[in-house]
Design a protein that fits this description.
heterodimer; A: alpha+beta; B: 340 residues; six-stranded antiparallel beta sheet
């Protein structure tokens, strides 16, 4: 007889932890909640009673990883090096494949892997916690620019859908997420004090941000020069005592060991320290958190999931039952789990999931973000201590306004913000020199013969403490051809691996080129003495470089969305508006795969807000 | 000799956290054989077997906590007991391991001085076994093979031979910026508590030691590249300057060779290693890592690489722009909260 819980939640990150913490706090019922997490529960200093040491370190080698090699015969990049942090999966154990739409020459990839650890991707993320602009919830029906190049609305392979909920529906949950997670930032313009975020913001739930890094002033000046409203970037790092999670007043917060680092002190508001740990302390016995447990498949009877099968820390098979089952193991892995479960029971669960149905939406319309920006070395010997930073100081979503979209022929907008901690530490500087994504680490440094002796000193003279970048995060066109499927490549549990089939829609290229140029304009306007590329002036240090992932054959692996989108039409969506799988009474999916469009901002806060929304729905269901 | 002490076992879950990602599996393919280095060796089944035993921080300065793990196979009978012997204690002193209930794992955590290297064997059912996960081994004087680990900041050479270390030392000098006039001025500055011989800076920085350690553990698969290519380099230098030892040839000879390795190297036997530039790229990456990663990995001794950056890079007002001490644990840094 399997153990029975009221709720079984698969994944402890942004999609799963809000539900666990909310339902643990139900006053009138002591629910039994099980959280299954594939990765370990790594300790903060506070979590370790034995001596105060954390399992996370301020250690560039631990977080950048030594060289490993792809070891899969037949993959397009067999024997190529890869570098991952200590909490990302080993690609030789748990590969993802990636290819273009022709599905030729697939490569083993880091695409879609964030972190496997209690807290999930929120342990490594950069903590940028923006709400989506209101328009991003209704991209199908909102006023749209005419004459779009490679018009995505006219492409039969594109299916742009409104979300079944609007910004107003999510607003109280954004406020709840911002309050409970612990985020610092501003609502208003940093200079005028006028509302600056491109959405209604009736209540300010932010903590006070820290003083900005002085290098960010160039980005602020540039943003203001081109007419943008600018606010302090909401970052999920506490700067003050945080009562909801019981975290005391932080000591020295500013450190470059934030973006892509787990925080040994727990100031970074990952879902462990901000949601799960407080709920487990306040309501002891209600949440059973089992780390190191890999869910292999779900089992159904009739229209209900009756068992969750998993492997424990030794690999022993186990199963549990739950009145409600919530899948939240990040978009690709959640879709994969549904597909694997369907294959286990093709005539039962498989039919319910419409796995083999012609035109099934499961796995389709996979999304990342259109991403890119501009970068420069601040000239004239001006240099800053970028290690004394979090990650991003100033942001604007002025590029989401309809007048901007119309004047630039874009279907949807973006957030733009500057980065400060990038390339702030010596190993990171070399590792990311010239890299386009996580797969190309070290390539720029490795392949530059001049970075030796005096040449190395000259390079560091130019780049150490001087690099400033401005990035955009834009909606990607939901394209049917972009999909997640199963491959024949087996993981360490002999399960089929996920295969990401993805490319950029031609309109994505227009969006990225336009926004990269905006980012370049910001730096041009903000930094005296810089020149635009392509003006006949030879490229050299101190001149801005701009670009995007489009057309470079690289991927951006940090945001994975879509693949099991929610909607009001069961024919074109996998989930109903409550994020419940159509036709299955007790199965919900709450990571980023529910999104029909990817939003013009980093997605984690929206995933958390939606999970709080679903938690309210589940309070009625259990 | 300081004997290791046994740390009271209090946290089975932490040991599972150390183990599950790497050791829990059904598939027994040799996917982690370091490009064939562990072909036929069951240790090639485990992801990042070099993480075992786990070397972690300890409350006692100058010590590490070392957690040694015995994993029985899923279809293997559960042993009555598992023990451990090693050079960290008297060899007759068998240390019992603790079984984690309902698991495949037995473990013990011991407190071992930093900068030490040890051999060990598990005793299971009366027989002695090497570690089934850790690929590091070492032979004793009787030719018996033991498992091996080393703790943080170890300087004892592990895999590189003396002649390899000497050539590599010259090689990394050319890569690093520490032979530049600017660096030498920094090293000679009054009050700079560095080793006396500034011309040994590359050794003081510990890059060769770092590479030795990374080849022993994390990047074992690259050891063969070093063996072959350092041999080729030695051969070529002997041909070019026959009256000097290879590690003592002129700077110009190294400079020339370094430049050639980006393309064609006259005299290089491409039949034994067909891509000298690949090796050059690897050495450059390892050199940079060794000079600027945390000193516990064996390089960046006394944080000299960080201190060089701290001293060199300043804003127009003369203020340092790499205040690494503020974030890093004491006594290396000055942070009062983060303990390392």
């Amino acid at each position: 007889m399997a153990e029975e819980y009221d709720i079984v939640i698969i994944g402890s990150g942004a999609g799963g932890a809000p539900i666990a913490s909310e339902l643990a706090g139900l006053e009138n019922r002591a629910l039994r909640i099980l959280v299954l997490e594939k990765g370990p529960k790594l300790r903060t200093q506070e979590d370790n009673p034995a001596g105060g040491f954390s399992d996370f370190k301020r250690d560039e080698l631990l977080n950048a990883g030594p060289e490993k090699r792809i070891n899969w015969d037949g993959a397009g990049n067999t024997n190529r090096p890869f570098y991952s942090s200590h909490i990302e999966p080993d690609l030789n154990d748990e590969p993802h494949l990636w290819s273009g739409h022709d599905e030729q020459d697939p490569r083993v990839t880091v695409e879609g892997y964030t972190a496997q650890v209690v807290g999930g991707g929120t342990q490594l993320y950069g903590a940028v916690s923006l709400r989506f602009p209101e328009r991003d919830f209704m991209l199908a029906s909102a006023d749209r620019p005419a004459g779009l190049p490679n018009d995505p609305y006219a492409d039969p392979d594109v299916d742009i859908r409104d979300w079944p909920i609007g910004y107003d529906d999510l607003l109280p949950y954004y406020e709840k997420a911002e309050t409970l997670v612990g985020i610092n930032g501003t609502v208003d313009d940093v200079q005028t004090g006028a509302p600056a975020q491109e959405k209604k913001f009736p209540k300010n739930c932010y903590q006070t941000p820290l003083s900005p890094n002085p290098i960010s002033q160039f980005a602020l000046d540039g943003m203001k020069s081109i007419g943008a409203q600018v606010y302090r970037t909401p970052l999920a790092v506490i700067t003050e005592a945080h009562a909801p999670s019981g975290r005391p007043t932080p000591g020295w917060v500013k450190t470059g060991y934030v973006n892509r680092y787990g925080d040994p002190l727990g100031y970074k508001s990952n879902t462990w320290v901000s949601l799960l740990r407080p709920a487990m302390r306040t309501h002891p016995g209600r949440i059973d958190l089992r780390a190191n447990c890999t869910v292999t498949h779900l089992e159904a009877s009739g229209k209900r999931i009756t068992k969750v099968h998993y492997r424990d820390a030794s690999g022993f098979p186990k199963s549990v039952g739950g009145k409600i089952v919530v899948v939240a193991c990040s978009a690709i892995e959640s879709v994969r789990l549904l597909m694997l479960s369907a294959e286990e029971d093709p005539t039962g669960l498989g039919k319910l999931l419409r796995h083999d149905e012609d035109g099934t939406p499961l796995g389709r319309y996979f999304l990342t973000h259109c991403f890119g920006g501009a970068e420069v070395s601040i000239p004239d010997g001006r240099r800053f201590d970028k290690t004394q930073s979090l990650d991003s100081d100033y942001a604007t979503d002025w590029t989401s306004r309809l007048d901007f979209l119309r004047s630039n022929n874009m279907w949807a907008g973006a957030a733009i913000y500057n980065n400060t901690s990038d390339q702030s530490l010596p190993v990171t500087l070399a590792r990311t020199d010239g890299a386009n994504d996580l797969d190309t680490w070290w390539e720029g440094f490795d392949n530059d013969p001049d970075k030796t002796g005096e040449g190395m000193l000259g390079w560091m003279d130019a780049d150490f403490g001087t690099r400033l970048s401005v990035s955009f995060m834009a909606n990607q066109v939901p394209w049917r051809k972009n999909r997640i499927r199963l491959s024949d490549l087996r993981d360490k549990w002999n399960r089929k691996s996920a295969w990401v089939v993805k490319d950029w829609h031609p309109h994505d290229g227009h969006v990225m080129n336009t926004l990269a140029r905006v980012c370049e304009d910001i730096l041009l306007a903000g930094i005296p003495g810089t020149k635009r590329e392509g003006t006949g002036i030879p490229w050299n240090r101190g001149v801005i470089g701009e670009g995007s992932v489009y057309g470079q054959g690289v991927r951006i692996a940090n945001h994975i969305l879509g693949g099991a989108r929610f909607g009001t039409d069961r024919a074109t969506s996998v989930l109903d508006p409550d994020c419940r799988v159509w036709d299955i009474d007790n199965l919900y999916v709450t990571d980023g795969c529910f999104m029909p469009t990817s939003g013009g901002a980093n997605p984690t806060l929206t995933i958390q807000a939606n999970s709080f929304r679903v938690a309210d729905i589940l309070k009625q269901a259990v | 000799m300081t004997f290791a002490t046994i740390v009271e076992p209090t946290d089975d879950d932490h040991v599972l956290d150390l183990c599950a990602k790497h050791l829990a599996r059904l598939n027994n393919d040799l996917r982690h054989s370091y490009n064939g280095h562990l072909a036929g060796d069951p240790r090639g089944r485990f992801s990042e077997g070099w993480r075992f035993p786990a070397i972690e921080s300890d409350r006692e300065p100058g010590f590490n906590q070392v957690t040694l793990v015995w994993r029985r196979e899923m279809d293997e009978a559960r042993p009555d007991s598992v023990g451990l012997i090693g050079t960290f204690r008297a060899l007759y002193d068998r240390i019992p391991l603790r079984e984690i209930p309902d698991s495949l794992y037995w473990y013990v955590t011991i407190r071992v001085p930093k900068r030490t290297c040890h051999r060990y064997l598990f005793q299971v059912g009366g027989a002695y076994h090497q570690d089934r996960v850790n690929p590091q081994t070492e032979k004793d004087g009787d030719g018996r093979t033991w498992s091996r680990f080393f703790t943080e900041e170890t300087t004892r050479p592990i895999v590189l031979q003396a002649h390899e270390r000497r050539i590599l030392s010259r090689f990394v000098q050319h890569i690093l910026p520490f032979r530049t006039p600017a660096a030498e001025e920094f090293l000679r500055s009054p009050g700079n508590p560095l080793p006396r011989d500034v011309y040994e800076l590359d050794q003081a920085v510990g890059v060769v030691n770092f590479i030795d350690k990374v080849l022993a553990r994390e990047e074992r698969h690259n050891r063969i590249d070093y063996a072959i290519c350092l041999r080729e380099i030695e051969k070529i230098l002997r041909l070019r300057e026959p009256y000097s030892e290879p590690d003592n040839v002129t700077k110009e000879a190294f400079t020339r060779l370094y430049g050639e390795m980006w393309g064609q190297v006259p005299g290089w036997d491409l039949s034994v290693y067909d891509n000298p530039s690949h090796f050059l790229r690897m050495v450059r990456r390892h050199t940079f890592l060794g000079a600027f990663s945390h000193p516990k990995y064996g390089g960046n001794a006394m944080a000299v690489g960080w201190r060089f950056l701290e001293e060199r890079f300043r804003d127009p007002g003369g203020n340092g722009v790499f205040d690494w001490r503020k974030a890093i644990e004491k006594p290396l840094g000055t942070n009062n909260e983060y303990v390392g």
